[in-house]
């Protein structure tokens, strides 16, 4: 099995909870789950697969801890890494910036050489606009725990099935 590291930023605990649910479903140990508020970019080194989770705040902003961490992470050569993104947003109150944070991470890491997997079809989501949505596909898994929490479990399971097919195991 390939080595998987999960890195998340969470201000209210929602993204942390999602990260832990994903870890449990994949059998990822607690030592391989990292809060970016106290992680170093060097912490990604031992992993072949990086699952990066971030919530979107305000009008499309990264979660605070990701601001600093992403600036350091994007300076690394990630050419040997496979990256899958997940994030939380509010599609009702911020429908024009829904899950923009994962779009920002995607955009900032595109030039690091990593391979992205885990795109999600945008049909079935209620939102107006998102930088995380390119040609009808989200660049990662968007979740809305505020308005569509009843769909979270199914969306996580579908996404995990997809990234498994793309070679994370």
Automatic annotation (TrEMBL):
<dbReference type="InterPro" id="IPR001094">
    <property type="entry name" value="Flavdoxin-like"/>
</dbReference>
<dbReference type="InterPro" id="IPR008254">
    <property type="entry name" value="Flavodoxin/NO_synth"/>
</dbReference>
<dbReference type="InterPro" id="IPR001226">
    <property type="entry name" value="Flavodoxin_CS"/>
</dbReference>
<protein>
    <recommendedName>
        <fullName>Flavodoxin</fullName>
    </recommendedName>
</protein>
<dbReference type="GO" id="GO:0009055">
    <property type="term" value="F:electron transfer activity"/>
</dbReference>
<dbReference type="InterPro" id="IPR029039">
    <property type="entry name" value="Flavoprotein-like_sf"/>
</dbReference>
<dbReference type="Pfam" id="PF00258">
    <property type="entry name" value="Flavodoxin_1"/>
</dbReference>
<keyword id="KW-0288">FMN</keyword>
<keyword id="KW-0249">Electron transport</keyword>
<dbReference type="InterPro" id="IPR010086">
    <property type="entry name" value="Flavodoxin_lc"/>
</dbReference>
<keyword id="KW-0535">Nitrogen fixation</keyword>
<keyword id="KW-0285">Flavoprotein</keyword>
<dbReference type="GO" id="GO:0010181">
    <property type="term" value="F:FMN binding"/>
</dbReference>
<comment type="similarity">
    <text>Belongs to the flavodoxin family.</text>
</comment>
<keyword id="KW-0813">Transport</keyword>
<comment type="function">
    <text>Low-potential electron donor to a number of redox enzymes.</text>
</comment>
<dbReference type="InterPro" id="IPR050619">
    <property type="entry name" value="Flavodoxin"/>
</dbReference>
<feature type="domain" description="Flavodoxin-like">
    <location>
        <begin position="4"/>
        <end position="164"/>
    </location>
</feature>
């Amino acid at each position: 099995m390939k080595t998987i590291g999960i890195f998340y930023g969470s201000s209210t605990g929602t993204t942390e909870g999602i990260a832990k649910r994903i870890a449990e479903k994949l059998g990822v140990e607690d030592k391989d789950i990292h809060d970016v508020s106290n992680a170093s970019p060097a912490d990604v080194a031992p992993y072949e697969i990086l699952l990066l989770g971030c919530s979107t705040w305000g009008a499309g902003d990264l979660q605070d801890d990701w601001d600093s961490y992403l600036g350091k992470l994007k300076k690394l050569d990630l050419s040997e890494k496979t990256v899958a993104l997940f994030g939380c947003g509010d599609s009702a109150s911020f429908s024009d910036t829904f899950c923009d944070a994962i779009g920002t991470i995607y955009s900032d890491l595109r030039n690091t050489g990593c391979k992205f997997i885990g795109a999600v079809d945008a049909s079935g989501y209620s939102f107006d606009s998102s930088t995380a949505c390119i040609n009808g596909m989200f660049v990662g898994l968007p979740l809305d725990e505020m308005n569509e929490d009843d769909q979270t479990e199914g969306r996580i399971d579908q996404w995990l099935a997809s990234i498994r097919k793309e070679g994370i195991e």
